[in-house]
Design brief:
This protein folds into 2 domains: 44-204, Tetratricopeptide repeat domain (Serine Threonine Protein Phosphatase 5, Tetratricopeptide repeat); 235-336, Phosphatidylinositol 3-kinase Catalytic Subunit, Chain A, domain 1 (Ubiquitin-like (UB roll)). It starts with 5 loop residues before the first helix and ends with a strand. The longest helix has 45 residues, at 160-204. The chain contains 12 helices and 9 strands. It is elongated. It has helices at 6-16, 34-45, 48-64, 70-80, 88-105, 108-121, 126-138, 142-155, 160-204, 268-275, 314-318, 340-347, and strands at 207-209, 235-236, 242-250, 255-263, 293-298, 305-308, 324-326, 331-336, 351-353. Helix 3 (48-64) runs antiparallel to helix 4 (70-80), helix 5 runs antiparallel to helix 6 (108-121) and helix 7 (126-138) packs antiparallel against helix 8. By secondary structure, it is an alpha/beta fold. The strands form 2 sheets. Strands 2, 3, 4, 5, 6, 8 and 9 form a 7-stranded mixed β-sheet that branches. A two-stranded parallel sheet has the order 1-7. Residues 237-343 form the Cns1/TTC4 wheel domain. InterPro entries: Csn1/TTC4_wheel, TPR-like_helical_dom_sf, TPR_rpt. This is Cns1/TTC4 wheel domain-containing protein. Keywords: Repeat, TPR repeat. It holds the Pfam family Wheel.
Length: 356
């Protein structure tokens, strides 16, 4: 747009002096035009309660126009609260109406705040008590919700909406408490079971490496991708034998197996005889028959591989001084004599010794 002519500039200046056409209102300390002074005088003479009431009605109308105007409704109510309102009933209504809009928009904390402010000015409004209870319910504050319901039912004992909300909140509260008790019971049982395993391992001189025991945050001890280790836990049977979950790694094929229940007195040969018959789908070269495999475990400190005799038992391997149990999940690596290239490039250099 080009520069205005002197005549147009004068016309624009006159328009800006008129309240109806102003782009922005004067700031404190600015010189007011005669028209603005007249408007300010009119506002000063108007009862703040009347001004707030007018804005409240504008807010109500904006709310009735639907969700797209609810932000405007909140702004009208907020502007109304900016006046020094002395009418407590009016103040309670403005807060109550703004609380309703906040509740509809999911602004639960703000809705509850406005309900409290409304009830400070009109404490027996069942409608506002219900809104406060509803906000508490949606916030998961079920005890507070029930307290509001009790307050509302004292005023209207037969209010069905509040009665239903009270029952719902009570049920949710009981579910929460029951959940906490069940969680504590499970935690106690797990702690007791873990202590039994720890004691049994101490008696067998098996070294458990618990979380945080000598391992860094970037510990690369083997984990099972995609599965929770909590699904794999050792337990002690009635004969005081430990049954272990055991992680089996086949590094040549980047695949894994889990033996969920390996009796500590069972031999490696017995277990792998079952696991490798029939041959796994990934054994495309047919190199992993029972008489072709070699079993190792890795010492994480030295990165050395230690071989395990197929005819030895699980407990025999786990009692060896170089064997550590991470995450209560014993781990072994399986390779094959027949995979010559892989053996020469990736395995042989790490073998520490055959016996220990």
């Amino acid at each position: 747009m080009g520069r205005l002519s002197p005549e147009d500039e004068e016309l624009e200046r006159k328009f800006q002096s008129m309240p109806l056409f102003m782009d922005s209102f004067p700031q404190e300390g600015d010189t007011l035009s005669p028209a603005m002074e007249a408007l300010q005088a009119l506002l000063d003479e108007t009862d703040p309660n009347d001004l707030a009431s007018g804005l409240k009605e504008s807010g109500n109308e904006a709310y009735r126009l639907g969700r797209k105007r609810w932000d405007d409704a909140i702004q009208y109510y907020t502007n109304a609260l900016g006046y020094p309102v002395t009418d407590k009933a009016l103040l309670a209504t403005i807060y109550a109406n703004r609380a309703q809009v906040h509740l509809q928009l999911g602004n639960l904390g703000k809705a509850l705040h406005d309900c409290k402010q409304s009830l400070e000015n009109k404490d027996k409004s069942v409608k506002v008590i219900y809104r406060a209870g509803r906000a508490c319910f949606l916030l998961g504050r079920y005890k507070d919700c029930m307290d509001y319901c009790v307050k509302g039912l004292r005023i209207e004992p037969k209010n069905d909406k509040i009665s239903v909300m009270f029952d719902d909140a009570k049920r949710k509260l009981m579910e929460e408490r029951r959940g906490r008790l069940e969680k504590k019971s499970r935690a106690d049982a797990e702690r007791e079971a873990n202590e039994r395993i720890s004691q049994a391992c101490r008696e067998r001189e098996i070294r458990l490496v618990e979380d945080g025991d000598g391992s860094d945050d970037d510990d690369d001890s083997p984990l099972l991708p995609g599965d929770s280790l909590l699904d794999y836990r050792p337990y002690i049977d009635d004969d005081s034998n430990i049954h272990w979950p055991v992680l089996i790694l086949y590094p040549e094929y980047h695949t894994t197996d889990v033996v969920r229940d390996w009796h500590e007195l069972s031999s490696f040969r017995d277990v792998f005889q079952v696991m490798l018959s029939p041959r796994p789908d990934w054994d495309v070269d047919q190199n992993y028959a029972i008489d072709q495999i070699r079993v190792f475990y890795r010492n994480e400190s030295s990165n050395d591989l230690y071989e395990v005799d197929l005819d030895s038992r699980l407990i025999d391997a786990m009692k060896r001084p170089s064997f550590n149990v991470y995450h209560r999940l014993p781990t072994f690596l399986i390779t094959s004599y027949a995979s010559t290239a892989y053996w020469n490039e990736n395995v042989q250099q790490f073998i520490r010794c055959n016996k220990e």
